[in-house]
Amino acid sequence: MKILKRYKAIAVITGTLLFVSCAHEDQPTETQLDYTVRNKTELDKWADVNFLDPYNIKIYYEWNQNLVDDNRYLFPPTVEKVKPALEVVKKIWIDSYSTIGGVNFVKKISPREFVLVGGTNLNTTGTQTLGLAEGGQRVTLFEIDYLNKKSRADVTRFIHTIQHEYVHILNQTKPFDEQAWSKLTPAGYTASWYIYSDAASRALGFITNYARLNIYEDFAETASIILISSKAEYAAILASVTDATAKANIKKKEAIVVQYYKDNFNIDFYALRDEAQKNTDLAIDK
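Structure (tokenized):
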């Protein structure tokens, strides 16, 4: 009986060794995957110094189909266009909030990823998506290749996107008074906002046509339009609204925005506006 058990044990061990040997022979001797780490370029190092190291914001400008909608015709930005665009973002957005909100403001509240896309993101409605904020963690900026830093209009249009998307991120951190806001112009919201002009929308109490999509876009548009406008430019917008009720509602929305920044972040919204305007002047290539 003892001898039989010993033979069984030897047979089991032999079978195990045979299995391991066969399994080893079946493994490929070379992998098809590329595990090499790309050496950082000067642009990568600059982005790390200005975004990743101080603010924990990772910049993605090389093509990664997992970070964009592959159902759209999109392409990566021209490498030479990346740094100028990021300089605008840094100067006007980060520096302004850091000066008025405190040096740690953007460090505490910011997206952790910026995805840069070279071209236009067209929608089936004929509109263009200039930026996306996803879950407060990632912001995608489109039309990087088309930014002309010598044009104030171009710079303002571009920075409008990040200012707008950042307001959404702030709202996810601290919600605004949705109940008070929703009472102001409830009948004017529409999914077909794009068929109306800004002027027609202002006559109904909305700062832009896109503000008519819902109360969240309305808040973000109201805040971001004021931030990208000088005091005189915003006064001109209000002066263009001839309907007294519409003008009053825009000003009531402005007041909610101002109070929101003060109550939740201890930020003087008009000081932030003025700082953003000063930094816009500095960001434009003369």
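Residues 2-26 form the longest helix (25 residues). Strands lie at 58-60, 113-116, 121-122, 128-129, 131-134, 138-141.
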